[in-house]
Structures are given as C-alpha cells and as structure tokens.
Amino acid sequence: MSAPATFSRQNAIGGAIGVTLLLFALVYHFFPQALRVAPEQRIAAPVQPQAGTQGPVAPRAALTPAESELQAGPPISLAPTSVIASRARGHALAGGGDAETGALLKRADAAAAQGRLAGEGDDTAAALVLQAAAIDPEDAHVRAALSNLHARLFADAQQALAANDTDTARVDLSALKQFPDAAADAHSLAVRIQAADRVRPLLERGVALIQAGRLEGAGEDNALSVYRQVLTLDPENAVARQGLERVQRGALDRALTAAAQNKDAEADAALSDAAASLRSSPQLADTRARIRAMRDQRGAGLLTQAQSALDAGNLDLAQTLTQQAQAIDDTPSGQALLKHIQDARTYASYRPGQVFSDRFLDIVGSAPSVVVVPLGAFQMGAAPGERGSTSSEEPRHEVDITRGFAIGRTEVTVAQFRAFVRASGYVPDSDRLGGASVYDEGSGRMQTVANADWRDDYAGARARDNDPVVNVSWNDANAYARWLSERTGKRYRLPSEAEFEYAERAGTTTPYWWGSGTPAGKVENLTGGSDRSPSHRSWSNAFNGYDDGWWGPAPVMSFAPNPFGLYDIAGNVSEWVEDCWHDNYTRAPRDGSAWVNPGCAQRVIRGGSWGSAPDQDRSAYRQAAPADTRSGRVGFRIVRDL
To answer: Do residues 634 and 605 lie in contact, with contact meaning Cβ atoms separated by under 8 Å?
Structure first.
C-alpha cells in the first residue's frame, strides 16, 4: 500500500475514535443515570417536635454545632456495621430475563440508582421488581433482584432508624412486607419503628433539657434520665448514646475543675456522676488518669514540703503536710515519712539501734558513743522462783519506756574520764577523799588502799586508756554526765535503774540476756570456773566451765554485745545508776524514770562485774552503796536524752 493511502486510513480511524469519546463524555455529563454512576443520596428528614412532649421546656434557642448534631441525629458512621456493609453493595439489582421482565428490572435498577427504593407510585424499585415477580416468579434474574432489593430495603430502614427517620423506615417496611420470605425482617423493623415512635418525643425532650442546662440530677426531669429511658426502649439508639456522651462531658468538666481547685471530694463525686452516665468510655478513662496525675503531683509536692519541714525541725508542720499527702493517696513514701516524723519526736531523728556521738561545742573532742534504745515495755524485777533472787527485786512490775534515750555503747573509759578531769578541773572523790577499794592478789580480797585512784585499774596498777574507769564514786559519775551536757548542749545523765535493766535484758525474759545458765560462748567478762588469777587463784562460786581469759576488767568491747548492741552490760564492771536505794519496788515508777528522793545517801549499782558471783550477773540483780563509794569493781556508763 502506498504511503498516502496509509496516511488517509490513519486519519479516518483517529477521527472516529475522537467522535466516540466526545459522545461518551456528553452522555456521562447529561445522562449519568444511563451509565449507573449517579451517587445515591438521602437527605434525612429533620426531627420535628411532636405532640405529647411531657413537662415544660425552655424556648428553643440557637443551637451550638454540637447540639445541632444531636438534634439532627448521628452521622452514617454511627450505623451498625452490617447496615453500612449492606448499603455499600453495588447499585445494580439484576439484569437479564425475557424482554418484559428484563425491561422492568432495568427500570427498577435505574430507580434504585436514583434512591427511589420504595414509596408511592409504580416507578419505585420495589414496585417494578414486584411487577417482574408477578410475571415470572421463577425467573432466576427476578429472584436475584428480589433478594438484593430485600437486603437493601432492610438496610435502608435500619439506617433511617439510626438517623431517627421513622417516616422513611415506614415506607421501606411497607414495601418489604410485600416481598417473599421477608416476614422476620419486617417484624423486626415494625418493633423498632414502634419503639422509635415512643423514643422520638423523648429525644426532643432530651435536646431541650441539654439546652436548658439540666444534664443530670434527682428525678426524671434531666437529660440523663431521658436518654436512659430512650435506651431502655431502643438499646441501639445512636442519638441517645450521643446524648449520654454530652451529659458525661459535663460531669467530666466538673471533675477536672474541682480537681484543679484541690476539691477532691467534689471531683470524686463528679467522676461518679460521669461513670453513672456511661460506665466506660475513653473520655472517662482519660479524665480519671488526668485527675490521678494531678493528685500524684500535688501529693508529691506536699511530701517534699513535709521533708523540708522535718529537716528544719518543724515536726508539727511536717506531720500535717504528710497527713494531707496521705489523704490524697496512702503511699509507701508517705508512710515512711510519717515513721521518720514519729522517730524524730521519739528519737530526735535517730533510729533504734543507731550509734552516734555528739561533738563538743567549745573544745576538741566528743562524748562517748551511744546506742539508740527502742521504746517498749518489760517486766522489771525477778520472776517468781528465780534462783538467787532477793526481796529487793520484788514485786515484779511492768514498766513502759516511753521516753526516747540512747545509752553508752560501753562503760566510760579511763581516757574519756581523764579528758573530763583535765578540761573541767574536777577533783574526783578518790583524790579528794583519798583511796579506793582494790583487789589484793595476796589475800584474794578487795582492800582499801589509800593511794589508789581513778587512774588505776582493779588492782591499783596504772590502767590502760581503753579500760573501763573504776575507783569512781556516784558523785564522780554524775559530775561527768553534767560536764558532757555543758560541752555538747545535749542532756546527758546516768541511766535510771529501770532503763538499765530494760537495756540489759534487751527484750529477753531469762535470768541473763544470753539465757538461763552458763553461756555457750564468750559473751561477757564473768567469773568463770576456768578463770585463773596471776597467782593461779580460782573462783569458788563461778559459771562452771566458763573461761573468758580475764581476771579483772577487760578493755571495753572485748566481748559480744547484747541484742541492743551494748557491750559489757552484765559483766566487766558493775555500774552506777541515777536512783536512790529503796528496799523493794513498792510504789516504784512505772514509766522508766529514776526513783529519787532528795538528799538520799545511798545509790543503786546494777550489772555484774569481773568478780561477781553468777547470781549477781542476773538482769534483775541490784545492790546499794553510799554515793562516795570507790571500788575496783564499779564504773559507769551514761545516757543521752533524745
């Protein structure tokens, strides 16, 4: 073929294609229904007030966007998933069949595409499909069209009900009743339409009540009560659910406002109201979390302030702030802070078992280390039938230790007492009155030696610095405690008799803090059956088989502490306490305080020594001595008030 002929043929083909596309575009623009592409449109009928609305309501004012949405009904996205799925199917009903039924089905399809599913007249999709079914009910295309339109009418009616459009639902129901095998769906729709008729005036009233601000409250004249009635009649009513969400938002706003003003009771009440509207919703959970965070932040702030008050020594303010924080939320950190405050009141911010030492304020040095004793109660005195007990240890009675104190971890040492004498210029009784009672190895007895003094050990030789100081009187011990108070600014004193026994027992009820007889190990410096003096003397009354390796006092802390952490409390050297001597415990104080009579001549000595018989090492043992007594068996330890 020649080139000109080919060119002419190409031009003709191109022109024909262009004319065809132009015609298609014109048809698409002016007759879209012919191509079945027109979108289905439905304008939901607005909800109109109906007769029968109960009670007076406020005049209709201009609606906010949210309220307009409530009055108009829910958007299509609120319809059930099955409804949306049914409506989303293709617009075509069915095609084919013979000429007459085929024509009717095509017209029905066109009517459905235009949104005319049912209603008055013979040109609706329902009327046309039913005409085709009357002509040839067995035609497969007709049966398919009936099934498809059945589903669409049912879905359309459900969507209309979800939008509160009962008129459209009735039209769909009327048509659906004429379809074969539609009785069940028709009955379901009839029940829902009947409920919708009762619901519609309630929804109108709910909107009016929201506009009037009556969201909730007692009785039935509030939006919450109305919407609950609606959901009782129609559990799937989307408008009522939207109304409950609106009511809940009001309660949640109140809760947040109250929480921001630290009005916790009001916030909790508002949250309860919100939960009563809708038991669970994302908004409710979010608001609860926000209020919880606000309270946590406020509680943490109060605890921080409480800690600062505690650090500053303002215990009352610290306790008030902590209690406020605990009222918001009872937290472990708050409980711990309350415990610290209580400890501060009782133990001056120390804790039971803690060891500390006060530094001197005006000179170099510090007071002896003390151990904080836990408060508690105990039975003071010998138990009935206790071996070695005397009438002076009776009657046994309960003592309640209510004042916090710390007691010397060890007996006062020679070095510590020397620092006192040098700094204060005090003259001990061994120097002022002359001499002390020390051990004589030759006779095996205690004898008064005129030149023995506090610098010497139990036998009159020069003592080591870490030996417990002996040959000191009650007067000397009391003077040392007063000097510590002056140097530290804290109150030091001798222990009361009750405090000493309580500290020695350390929670035990046996005769000795370690048990009822000979210790299993080296617990104290005691008179042991295996002890030997420098000249190989032995004790005639001792703990059988016990050998602590010492004859005379040992340096402090040479043995094990008792359960309260105190060393040498039942052995090594006996110790002066503050009390005056009384023959028994009749009328003795029960609060742990010292029993003192002005001008008393005799004081009390507690605890056993390196030379005491086993009965004298018992926790209940006590003896009397004049206040100026000096002995190589007696020393002392101090107490620091908290």
So the answer is: yes
pTM of the entire structure? 0.59
Give which of 592, 383, 575 is closest to 468, Cα–Cα.
575
Euclidean distance between CA atoms 598 and 186, whole angstroms: 108
Q: Which residues pair with 436 in a beta bridge?
A: 449
CA distance 217 to 223: 9
Helix and strand counts by DSSP (H, E) for the chain: 18, 13
| 380 within 8 A of 399, measured Cβ to Cβ | yes
- The neighbouring-strand residues paired with 130 are none
- At residue 407, the pLDDT reads 98
Say what the alpha-carbon torsion angle 443, 444, 450, 452 is, to the nearest 10 degrees: 140
DSSP assignment string, 361-406: SSSS-BPPPEEEEPPEEEEESPPTT-TT--GGG-S-EEEEE-S-EE
Q: Where are the domains of the chain?
A: 76-195, 295-347, 370-431+462-641
Q: Cβ neighbours of residue 308 under 8 Å, at least 6 residues apart?
A: none
Q: How far is CA 633 from CA 177, 409, 553, in A?
A: 117, 19, 8
Q: What CA–CA distance (Å, rounded) separates 540 from 7?
A: 146
| Number of residues assigned to the chain | 642
DSSP secondary structure string for all residues of 417-469: HHHHHHHH----HIIIII-EEEEETTTTEEEEETT--TTB-TTSSBPPTTSBP
User: Tell me, what's the pLDDT at 92?
Assistant: 60
Q: How far is CA 349 from the centre of its chain?
A: 24
**Distance separating alpha carbons of residues 93 and 116, to the nearest angstrom:** 13
Tokens of 166: 């009962």
Q: Using DSSP, state whether 607 is helix, strand or coil.
A: coil
* Distance (Å, whole) CA 98 – CA 113: 22
Question: Residue 275 corresponds to which tokens in the numbers above?
Answer: 């939960």
Residue 260's SS3 state is helix
Q: What is the largest CA-CA distance in the chain?
A: 158
Whether the CB-CB separation of 426 and 482 falls below 8 Å is answered with no
**Tokens 């007492």, located at residue:** 417
- CA-based nearest residue to 95, from 54, 44, 129, 50: 129
Please, are residues 510 and 570 in contact by the beta-carbon 8 Å criterion? Answer: no
Rounded to 5 degrees, what are φ and ψ at 380?
-90, 135
Domain 370-431+462-641 has CATH 3.90.1580.10: yes
Residue among 128, 134, 138, 130 at smallest CA distance from 97:
138
Give the model's pLDDT for residue 297: 93
**pLDDT of the residue at 95:** 59
The whole-angstrom distance between residue 354's C-alpha and the CA centroid of its chain comes to 28
| 525 and 568 Cβ atoms separated by less than 8 Å | yes
In our burial notation (b when 16+ CB lie closer than 10 A, e otherwise), range 84-99 reads: eebbeeebebbeebee
Residues of the chain with pLDDT below 50 are 1-8, 10-12, 14-15, 18-19, 21-22, 24-91
Tokens of 355: 């060891």
Amino acid present at 365? G
pLDDT of residue 96: 60
Q: Which two tokens stand for residue 554?
A: 């040992």
pLDDT of residue 192: 86
Phi-psi sector, 423: left (phi>0), alpha (psi -120 to 50), beta: alpha
